[in-house]
Design goal:
Layout: H1 9-16, H2 22-29, H3 41-48, H4 53-66, H5 69-81, H6 83-95, H7 97-105, H8 118-121, H9 125-132, H10 138-157, H11 163-188, H12 190-195, E1 196-202, H13 204-207, E2 217-225, H14 231-250, E3 261-262, E4 275-276, H15 278-287, H16 291-297, E5 301-305, H17 307-322, H18 330-338, H19 361-375, H20 387-396, H21 402-426, H22 437-446, H23 453-482, H24 496-505, H25 511-522, H26 527-544, H27 549-563, H28 567-575, H29 577-587, H30 592-599, H31 618-631, H32 635-662, H33 673-704, E6 710-716, H34 718-721, E7 731-739, H35 745-764, E8 774-775, E9 788-790, H36 791-800, H37 804-809, E10 814-818, H38 820-834, H39 842-858, H40 877-891, H41 903-912, H42 918-942, H43 953-962, H44 970-991
Parallel strand pairs: 2-3, 2-4, 7-8, 7-9
Antiparallel strand pairs: 1-2, 1-5, 6-7, 6-10
Helix pairs in contact: 1-2, 2-4, 4-6, 4-7, 6-10, 9-11, 10-11, 11-14, 15-17, 19-20, 19-23, 20-21, 21-23, 22-23, 23-26, 24-25, 25-27, 26-27, 26-28, 26-29, 27-29, 28-29, 29-32, 30-32, 31-32, 31-33, 32-33, 33-35, 33-42, 40-41, 41-42, 42-43, 42-44
């Protein structure tokens, strides 16, 4: 009797044995069906050893209840006397609710776990075929299948087999099941069976002998007519047999389903015929197949049906698999496939995904398969469809480091064991780690983690996933370094040929040069070479992810040669997580940023500082430039210092733009392309303004000391005044001066002209730094007019002679350097011209439209595609800007928001004022941003300005990557550009031309 208020001794024992519901367990142990067992301590010990003692006890009671009265004593006696049987049965009941349900429905199936012959320990296809031999229809096949599955699960949970052996047994059981299902289909359709030969080819995990408990079984069907039969009718008969086979396995019956049979890996996928002849398969693979299809065929294995036809299929497709790496599109296909398939996983599930998440099973499988495709063409030892066997072969051949392979093998086994146990519980297809505490506890205990199952499971899972994440990319690249490094005795290295094959597969055009760079960087025993050997595997992966890996590696070698002896350089890349990835992105994205960096490699320090990529404002830049000018000995030294600051700031701007456009592993790419354009435009405008201010100070100081005889100001025009400069833009300006009190006008004019000439000379001197070209062609009278005018002269000209195009050009006028008061008075002078009271008259509107139409017909370069010219083409910059500027001149007098030099700001103000509907405003903005980014991209990639897409495929791919188009999607970029600008042109026709 239990004393009130005290727990029974049984309750305490149940707690110690791992029960989470001891009260419920006590009641279950009191069930009359367990009367012969309840006092036996052996039973409690055995239940306590299971993954979930509560679940195991519930299943045991149900199984005992299901036994006929005459059999129950035999069952309980066997359970008590046979420890191996007890461990197997309770192990299954504690791990799988679904198999407990099966045992409750089929009360005699426990007998299959009682005796184990030697063959039972590791059964193969023949043994499983024997186990399924009596099945005559879909229902009996499911019962027999579950009975076989019960034995596999028992060996698995008791540790008789490891995870790889269990996966192989599941594949063998699937093979036997496909054969049995085909036999049932043939019996049901004897006329069809007589007409054709049908072979079933297993693909995926079944083909690779590494199946899960619950998984689609991927297959391909091959059919041929029997001798004398009509081919068309024979293939129709084979298709009916194949369809019947799929239904037998897939359909839900009173005994549930087995697994879906998925034939979507066949040629043309679900759109292609279910069954093809061998010649039809080969014709497709030789002409149309994509790289991923050859990757899938790597696991192809004939499993059922006509064995001779199956063997012929495997013999025919195998050579094609191992030649896939020589195909034209292999590299871009691989780049696309290497991007993890996480986009389609709901955000809430990514962290729980065992298969597709970062550091998941797919990462290991993909890495191994890709290395097999690259090196299997010259090494037949790699021709295995089984992931762990292939990984071992890669390590044995020196294609993967032995330590890396061992770590990856360990991680893969743990993750697959997790996946098996998760699926075994309810026999449902899932790769998600559960969130429920009880489920996690059962999962942890099933893997032998007993002290604190949930915490230990999470720790081990994260550790193994981290190993996979870390090694997944390094697997490709570390052996490349070993190929050129000193190895320990006994270590196997990649041959130069194998290293070259791998570099080619990763996108390197010149593998021999790449290997020379690696040897120069990583060979030797110095500390510098040792650090390079830890950095390069990761850097090579980032380079391979770009449009020009060769340029990235060459640039890295040049920077390393320049900075190799500085103590901070390699330490920065090794210790500052973002610095190395940022450098890789910058070096492999085009010519401009690396050229700027190589002129002063110490700027690489900017890439490791979280604040280093943020643009510095104009005041800060001007202060630094003027201080440098003040320290210089003469005007040329002064402007050289100013141009050095400009070069550094151009690099900072380009690097931030590239990193924002590409994104990094920790920071996704900037989602708002307009923000990227605005940042570049503002930053380049500020640094050019500061540089011009420095050149002005240097020119004045060289001849006049601290004060010029005339007040002098530089007014920005065009994109400069609009704060919309790109990397390759000239600085459009007007020069205005005003003689100081008591100074002769002619003397003042001579001084002003000499200052302008000297500034332009200094800013264009041939040096290592990019020149800054000053363009004053927007001045009154254009090229034939004086270069510098007084404020009064401007006033007289504009009052008397000004043309409407000049008023339009003045919409962009903004002070940039020199005397601020003079510049402000100039802006006051031109405001009434650019925002005329009561708006533009009809004649002026017609004149602007006439000028625009003339420009479209005359200024577009000969042979240029008008649909792809970013500046003057259809829906390009000019179209959008002239439309916005016309609105500014017509309505700026009444709408203060339109009085801005910035295009996007003015467009937003026009929308806010109701002058442009929302959709049209968005269309114009999208086109303007895209065209601006195309121009920036061309300059970043080619190192020289351009308004059209490059014709070189690699340069075009780099432009595409900058704009967010992955490998192989350049055609979409051009199509999208034409579509977006075509829509913009339609808006221009309506708003500008009044069509």
């Amino acid at each position: 009797m239990t004393v009130p208020g005290r727990r029974s001794s049984t309750f305490s024992r149940l707690l110690r044995h791992g029960f989470t519901d001891p009260s419920g367990a006590e009641q279950l142990l009191d069930a009359p069906e367990l009367s012969a067992l309840r006092d036996d301590s052996v039973l409690l010990d055995a239940l306590g050893a299971t993954a979930d003692p509560d679940l195991a006890l519930r299943g045991l009671v149900r199984l005992a209840e299901a036994q006929p009265e005459t059999e129950r004593q035999t069952f309980t006696a066997t359970l008590l006397s046979a420890k191996p049987f007890r461990d197997r049965l309770l192990g299954v009941l504690g791990a799988s609710e679904a198999l407990a349900d099966h045992l409750a429905r089929h009360a005699r199936d426990w007998e299959s776990l009682v005796t184990y012959e030697a063959a039972d320990l590791h059964p193969g296809v023949a043994e499983f075929e024997q186990g399924l031999a009596e099945a005559t229809d879909a229902v009996s096949l499911r019962v027999a299948y579950r009975r076989c599955l019960l034995a596999i699960a028992a060996r698995d949970v008791c540790g008789t087999t490891d995870v790889a052996q269990a996966a192989a047994e599941l594949a063998d059981l699937a093979t036997a099941t496909l054969r049995a299902a085909l036999a049932i289909a043939r019996t049901a359709e004897p006329a069809d069976a007589a007409q054709c030969r049908l072979a079933v080819i297993a693909m995926g995990k079944c083909g690779g002998n590494e199946l899960n408990y619950v998984s689609d079984v991927d297959v391909i069907f091959v059919g041929e007519p029997v001798e004398g039969a009509d081919e068309g009718k024979a293939i129709q008969a084979a298709t009916r047999l194949a369809s019947h086979l799929m239904r037998i396995c897939s359909e839900t019956t009173v005994e549930g389903t087995i697994w879906p049979v998925d034939a979507n890996l066949r040629p043309e996928g679900r759109n292609g015929p279910l069954v093809r002849t061998l010649s039809s398969h080969l014709a497709y693979y030789q002409r149309w197949a994509k790289t991923w299809e050859f990757q899938a065929l790597l696991k192809a294995r004939a499993v059922a049906g006509d064995p001779e036809l199956g063997a012929q299929y495997i013999d025919a497709v195998s050579p094609l698999v191992w030649q896939a790496a020589e195909r034209e599109n292999f590299v871009p296909d691989v780049q696309k496939m290497r991007r993890r398939v996480v986009d389609n996983i709901p955000a809430a599930q990514v962290e729980r995904e065992l298969k597709l998440g970062p550091g998941g099973l797919r990462d290991v499988e993909f890495a191994v398969q890709l290395l097999q495709l690259v090196h299997g063409r010259s090494d037949a030892t790699l021709h295995s469809g089984t992931t762990l066997d292939a990984l071992a072969a890669l390590a044995a051949g020196g294609y993967v480091g032995r330590a890396d392979a061992a770590q990856l093998d360990d991680a893969y086994r743990f993750l697959r064991a997790m996946e098996h146990r998760i699926q075994l519980y309810r026999l449902r297809r899932t790769h998600l780690v559960p969130e429920d505490e009880d489920d996690l506890r059962r999962l942890g205990r099933s893997l032998g983690l007993r002290t604190d199952p949930v915490a230990e499971l999470n720790k081990e899972w994260k550790r193994h996933a981290s190993v996979v994440r870390r090694l997944h990319e390094k697997l490709f690249y570390r052996p490349l370094l070993d190929a050129v490094a000193q190895l320990a005795p006994g270590e196997i290295r990649l041959s130069p040929k194998a290293a070259g094959q791998r570099l080619e597969a990763l996108g390197y055009d010149d593998p021999a040069a790449a290997l020379r760079h690696l040897e120069a960087l990583a060979s030797g025993v110095s500390r510098k070479a040792a650090i390079q050997r830890t950095l390069l595997p990761v850097l090579l992966g980032w380079f391979a992810d770009s449009a020009d890996p060769d340029a990235g590696l060459l640039g890295f070698r040049k920077v390393s040669d320049a900075l190799g002896k500085t103590p901070w350089y390699l330490r920065l890349l090794r210790d500052e997580g973002a610095a190395a990835e940022n450098l890789a992105r910058v070096l492999s994205a085009g010519r401009l940023a690396p050229d700027l960096l190589l002129r002063a490699p110490e700027a690489v320090a900017l890439l490791g500082d979280p604040e280093g990529l943020k643009p510095r404002g104009r005041d800060h830049l001007e202060q630094e430039v003027l201080a440098a000018v003040g320290r210089a000995g003469d005007a040329e030294q002064a402007v050289a210092a100013a141009r050095g600051v400009r070069r550094r700031e151009l690099f900072r701007t380009a690097a931030a733009d590239l990193i924002g456009s590409y994104g990094t592993e920790d920071n996704p790419r900037e989602s708002d392309p307009g923000a990227l354009v605005d940042r570049v435009g503002e930053a380049v405008t500020d640094l050019n303004a500061a540089t011009i201010a420095g050149a002005l100070r240097a020119a004045v100081r060289a001849e006049w000391g601290d004060m010029l005889p005339t007040r002098f100001a530089v007014i920005g025009m065009g994109r400069f005044g609009g704060h919309e400069l790109g990397y390759g833009s000239d600085a459009d300006v007007l020069f205005v001066h005003e003689p100081r009190e008591g100074v002769d006008e002619q003397e003042a004019a001579r001084a002003a002209n000499r200052v302008v000439a000297e500034m332009r000379r200094l800013l264009q001197l041939p040096t290592a730094d990019p020149p800054l070209l000053i363009d004053a062609d927007l001045r009154p009278e254009g090229k034939s007019g004086p270069l510098v005018r007084t404020l009064k002269s401007y006033e007289a000209y504009y009052r008397r002679w000004s043309l409407v195009w000049e008023s339009q050009a003045l919409l962009r006028a903004a002070p940039m350097a020199g005397d601020q008061d003079l510049a402000d008075r100039f802006i006051e002078l031109v405001d009434p011209l650019r925002y005329p009271a009561e708006g533009l008259g009809d004649d002026a509107v017609r004149e602007i439209r006439r000028l625009k139409a003339r420009m479209e017909s005359e200024r577009l370069p000969r042979g240029a595609d008008p649909t792809l010219h970013a500046k003057l083409g259809r829906g390009g910059l000019s179209d959008v800007e002239w439309t916005v500027q016309l609105l500014q001149m017509r309505h700026g007098w009444a709408e203060p928001g339109l009085r801005t030099t910035r295009t996007r700001e003015a467009l937003a103000a026009a929308h806010a004022a109701g002058l442009i509907p929302t959709e049209e405003a968005q269309t114009l903005d999208e086109a303007w941003v895209l065209a601006s980014r195309v121009r920036n991209a061309v300059m970043l990639v080619r190192g020289r300005a351009g308004d059209t897409f490059p014709s070189d495929p690699r340069e075009l791919a780099a432009v595409g990557r900058y704009l967010g188009y992955g490998p192989g999607h350049v055609g979409e970029l051009v199509d999208d550009y034409r579509r977006i600008t075509r829509r913009a042109r339609a808006v221009v026709e309506e708003l500008f031309y009044g069509a």
